[in-house]
Write a structure and sequence with these properties.
Elements (H helix, E strand, L loop, with lengths): L14 H14 L12 H8 L3 H14 L2 E4 L3 E4 L31 E2 L12 H14 L14 H15 L8 E4 L2 H11 L5 E6 L3 H9 L3 E8 L2 E2 L1 H7 L3 E4 L13 H12 L5 E5 L24 E6 L11 E4 L2 H8 L10 H12 L2 H28 L3 E4 L6 E6 L5 H10 L2 E2 L1 E2 L15 E5 L8 H13 L2
């Protein structure tokens, strides 16, 4: 006999949900044994004083989930379901404390993070207008799975843009759009030889290094000299793939001169299946001279894989990056037996509209001036506060630079004090990939993209206390 009560109050669940939950519980705890016939819909409705529709909705859900089965003209019966191994919830089934997340309270903090951009200056209304225009014009596209490399018309727009701004030579067919540079790197490793040796700049991009290691790839590191990746170490290491940031080395800020760029291109051309991955992550922002063309623009033998992103120029949250594949790797990509769709179609269409309408270049021009002003005020405040105890490097491009301090404190000690001062920043030690060593003098990476004008003096004052304060 099946008994249950129904709560008819306004705050209770819908009646069909109550019936569903109670029968489900009875099946699971075996108070309704397997193959037991449950009351007919009308019988249960009369017993509970509810509508037949409510009972029918509950029975149909239980049927769909496999708690009941139906026999034509006989009714509904309890399905035979295996019992759980544990009657009680086993210890430790709740989420452990070390895995729980809590949004940090950053009120009162000042950010010197290199990972952020100034979202307050993003032309959100213009972007939404572009979204609306793109959706109205290409609404049918949103109901389809697009090309695994991204929409062709969007790739056309990106191809024109990077040709004009970075000198990159490409056809739309060579471009692959993806949700972030790391995702594209992972995809790229599937196109390159499995036993390829990847060499990264030291210091360099730790997340990319860890990604390659997690993928089981052979990795090596190449130290920097005054021109960028050391050719001497490259000749000794003999890698197959170089990963470099020539326009603004991350994190040191070194800009690779044309002499070293030609040396790298000659190295790549010496042997088959050698490639250079050029990560052009913040090339839009150059302050003391015109923008330097991409390494790929000098490549005569199609050995450079150019990678760009809109994370620094627009917003990281848009998750739109791209790479330009040389023809041989593009052929490998097209032989893949599965498609990878990773980038939001509406975001792609909005980006195309944003670029084609001129809003993108307008935004870049505005932000370049804004970041230049912030950078100059920050440098002036640092030099005034620290005097001869500070050396600045790599400050003529990008959204961060390196500061080296003549002090007795370690980077670790400075970071701990900076955290106590509510300063968000990183030290060079974070980007030492393999050596694990520390420099004689502490070096900090100071990003200024999220730094407000009114916070510069206070931020520098807190930084001074972290470096030299008692």
């Amino acid at each position: 006999m099946m008994t249950m009560s129904i709560d008819h109050s306004e705050t209770a669940d819908y009646i069909y949900q109550q019936i569903y939950q109670k029968i489900k519980a009875a099946v699971l705890d075996r108070s309704l044994p397997p193959h037991t016939k449950v009351p007919s819909k009308r019988e249960l409705a009369d017993t509970l004083n509810v509508s037949v529709n409510s009972v029918n909705s509950a029975y149909q859900q239980l049927l769909a989930e496999g708690y009941l089965y139906a026999i034509e003209r006989r009714g509904f019966f309890v399905e035979e379901i295996a019992t759980f191994y544990y009657e009680e919830k086993p210890a430790g089934s709740a989420l452990p404390d070390d895995l729980k997340e809590q949004e940090p309270d950053k009120s009162g903090w000042i950010s010197f993070s290199h990972m952020s951009v100034d979202a307050a200056h993003f032309p959100l209304k213009s972007w939404f207008r572009c979204e609306q225009k793109a959706a109205a014009r290409s609404f049918h596209t949103l109901g389809e799975l697009v090309h695994p490399q991204g929409l062709y018309e969007v790739r056309e727009t990106i191809s024109r843009l990077i040709s004009l701004t970075r000198g990159v030579k490409s056809r739309p067919e060579q471009i692959v759009i993806g949700a972030g540079t790391q995702m594209l790197i992972q995809l790229l490793t599937e196109l390159l030889p499995k036993d390829a040796l990847y060499a990264m700049e030291e210091p360099g991009y730790m997340r990319m290094y860890q990604l390659l290691k997690s993928l089981g790839k052979q990795t090596a590191t190449i130290h920097l000299d005054e021109k960028g990746m050391s050719m001497t170490e490259i000749d000794i290491c003999q890698p197959d793939v170089l990963i470099t940031t020539p326009s603004h080395q991350f994190p040191s800020g070194v800009i690779m001169p044309v002499s070293r760029r030609i040396q790298l291109l000659n190295w790549a051309a010496e042997r088959k299946n050698r490639y250079i991955i050029e990560d052009d992550y913040d090339s839009e922002f150059k302050y003391d001279a015109d923008t330097i063309p991409a390494l790929q623009s000098l490549d005569r033998f199609q050995n450079v894989i150019y990678m760009g992103t809109f994370s620094k120029s627009l917003l990281p949250g848009l998750r739109i990056s791209y790479m330009v594949l040389p023809p041989e790797l593009l052929r490998v990509f097209k032989r893949r037996t599965y498609d990878l769709h990773t980038c939001n179609t509406l975001a792609q269409l909005a980006l195309k509209e944003f670029i084609d309408s001129g809003e993108y270049q307008k935004h870049i021009k505005k932000m370049k001036q804004h970041y230049k002003d912030i950078r100059e005020r920050l440098i002036s405040a640092l030099e005034e506060a620290f005097g001869k105890t500070i050396i600045l490097k790599g400050a003529n491009a990008g959204l961060h630079f390196v500061t080296e301090f003549d002090c007795t404190r370690s980077e670790k000690d400075i970071l701990a004090r900076a955290s106590a001062e509510q300063l968000d920043l990183f030290a060079m030690s974070r980007f030492r990939l393999k050596t694990g060593g520390v420099s004689e003098k502490p070096k900090l990476i100071l990003g200024f993209a999220r730094l407000k004008q009114d916070d510069i003096e206070e931020g520098v004052t807190r930084l001074y206390r972290a470096v030299f304060g008692a």
